[in-house]
Amino acid sequence: MRALMALVLCALPVGAGAQAADMRQTLQEGLIETADAFILPAYQGQSAGADGLEQALVAYCAGAGDVDGAQDKFADLFLAWQRASLIATGPITEAEGPMRVQLWPDPKGFSQRAIRSALRDQDPALLQPGGVEGRSIALTGLTALEYLIYGDLPPDSYGCDLATAIAAYQAELAAGLVAHWTPGSAYRQAFDTAATGNAVYGDVDALMRELLAGTVVHVDRLRKFKMMRGLGDGPGAARPERTEARLSGLGLASIEASFRALADLYNVPFGLFDVAPDVGGSLEYLVLGDTASSVADAISIMDGTLEDIAAADGADAQELRRLADLVLFHEAFLKTGFLAALGLSAGFTAADGD
Amino acid sequence: MATRRAVLHQLALGLGVVACRGAVGQPADGARYVGIETSAVTGRSRTSFFSDTGRRLTSTALDFRAHGMAQHGARLIVFPRRPGDRMALLDVTTLEVKSVTTAPAHRRFCGHGAFSQDGSHLLVTENDLKTLQGHVAVYDARAGLSRLGSIALPGPGPHEIIRAPGQNRFLIALGGLETHPDYGRTALNLSTFRSQLLAVDLDTGTVDEWGFWSGTEGVSLRHLAFDATGRLYAGAQVADAGRAAAENVLFVVENGQVTRSAAGALLGGYVSSVAAQGSTAMVTSKVAHLALTLDGAQVMSKTAQVGASAVAMHGDGYGLSGYDALNVVGATYRALRDHEFDNHAIFVI
User: Fold this and answer.
1) Nearest to residue B149, comparing CAs of B124, B183, B178, B182?
2) pLDDT in tens, A31-47
3) Which of the pair, A27 or A351, is modelled with greater confidence?
4) What pLDDT does B11 receive?
5) Contact flag A351-B184 (C-beta cutoff 8 Å)
6) Which among A197, A284, B202, B300 would be 20 to 30 A from B162, CA to CA?
7) Residues A266, A289: contact at Cβ < 8 Å?
8) In this complex, do B341 and A350 lie within 8 Å of one another by their Cβ atoms?
9) What are phi and psi of B166, to 5 degrees?
């Protein structure tokens, strides 16, 4: 009997360990599918958008196109980035992080000041290949580009060439992200093998926590900045001048793209969220995915720009405030609910040190 | 109108509160080691007290995410993680928060502070949100904390401040990075910043620049400690990987001579915290999951610790925590549920 008990006691941890290993392997496979089906395509979209904008600007600045074409391409890049920015994991977090692409909110007007200063100084070095790299993020991102492209931008001008140089930098940055996320790269190797541990990710738990932490930051920004910053807490509190992308009028589409990205991330077939229920995880992602998709649909049929809606401060503004509250459910799920359902701790805050 | 029963009920409650305050306020074991544990759920921290006898005493809730600490006598100041705007004064005998002090408008605390030698003043590193330049705030600490003013620093991003032993001279790691809370923690001058150490004399208000050391391009000096022999250990973090050499994150200053420790190559370009005692020091790296014990620039031993961050030294012992585990002089503690041990800790002296 004693021998039997010893056998049982010894066998339990081994069985539990094997089960845990199976669970983490399943989650790893879900993460790989998420990378292949959502993350990499999102960066490819961003890369294509940046290439398209650079080409449109080259043509326009040479007098061979119109500014509307460049503005259309800017919109493609801008919205592609809103989708890709849901991922704040891995290479995008290097250096200044996602703000290398879009420095917003910019309450101090750093981008506008940087562009004005550059237009005044007309430094030819900025226009050389690679000349924008390493300069202030106030000068090199989408906020600066918007200021140029939706401002006074005559062809064959320093400003036009500067816009082209910034677009080229963004194209290079996006291409780098695509390269990093392409299977076989050093980063993807680390991502794909987290379950067995490597120098970047000690285990698949660390990778999941990092991925989820990035999405939490994104949804927090979606609610606080993209929506509530300009709309305020309630009627009478709207501040239209604080809405995103006022010059291009893309603020509302930006919110829609963010919700759409959230829905698509949840709904990747056999992706992280989809496989989690197989190993004891939550099914809540299904409801959240549907909700995010419905919110995106609702926003897509709203009239006017986000700035107009905030200025009117009417029914649409109130509806957007209501939709912003729904983001809190996503935040709670991504912050703690998903991992807790798997029996994993949600502790990850200490990793971002100082 | 209050009934007799209601009055007795109120009295009973009041007596209970008084009795409980006494019980909680005078723990059987004194607090010896103080760590910070931060909740992943709320993002707020707790100040956790541990005794000499291997007991977790209590964890006092804060309404902000904490970073560094400074202690003088019974007073413990817990500073917020930058760019926080509140710091808490706790009593290390009752383990209670006595007061919370808010930064002035357009100023944010940078995570660290230090008491003057007699404990009458508290110096706190600050960021001026209008200029993005660093300051050291000076508080009268004789009765609570009342702000006296601030000393301007010659650059942005001050981080840890420590007092030179036996003097009212303070050393500051001027990290060099411009940040503004509206932009999160993103560095706004990443490609051009430089970092150096500064010395501030509290009595005269003068600030001496130590100058930019060779090899510190792209690294931000952040954490400091003096050992008993007067050696200063400085830990840095790579901020601009394009300019920095990852091994250039650990320096020792002795008799005015700066030595780059080759041990910096083991730290993954990131020093989490630094502590010193006697003739040794310890540095941690949550990137390398490693703690090093040093004698000057020489490595005496290595300790593996997942997420190695907070370290404190006292006597022959030390306390070292990673994300979810803390070891203090032989006793091991797990982090509170849904919490992790954060960046810094101290021994109560």
Assistant:
1) B124
2) 999 999 999 999 999 99
3) A27
4) 37
5) no
6) B300
7) yes
8) yes
9) 75, 10
pTM: 0.83
**Tens-digit pLDDT profile for residues A1-31:** 344 443 333 333 444 567 788 899 999 999 9
Size of interface A-B (CB pairs under 8 A): 87
Residues A237 and A115: beta-carbon distance below 8 Å: no
Nearest-by-Cβ selection for B241 from A95, A135, A350: A95
Q: Tell me, what's the ipTM?
A: 0.75
Q: Contact A244/A265 with Cβ under 8 angstroms?
A: no
Which residues, 6+ apart, have CB-to-CB distance to B257 below 8 Å?
none
Task: From chain A, pick out residues whose CB is under 8 angstroms from the CB of B309.
Answer: 350, 353
Chain A interface includes B272 (CB < 8 A): yes
Among the partner-chain residues B40, B183, B337, the one whose CB lies closest to the CB of A349 is B40
Residue pLDDT, tens place only, B287-334? 999 999 999 999 999 999 989 999 999 988 999 999 999 999 889 999
Contact by Cβ (8 Å): A105, A112: no
**Interface contact B182-A97, CB threshold 8 A:** no
Count the helix, strand and coil residues of chain A and give each as a percent rounded to the nearest 5: 75, 0, 25
Mean pLDDT of A133-162: 96
Three-state secondary-structure class, residue A233: coil
Give the chain A residue nearest B44 (alpha carbons): A349
User: Cα B54–B57–B59 angle (5° rounding)?
Assistant: 130
A-chain residues near B38 (CB < 8 A): 349-350
Higher local confidence (pLDDT), A12 or A78: A78
Q: State phi, psi for B164 to the nearest 5 degrees.
A: -65, 140
Residues of A in contact with B286 (CB under 8 A): 350-351, 353
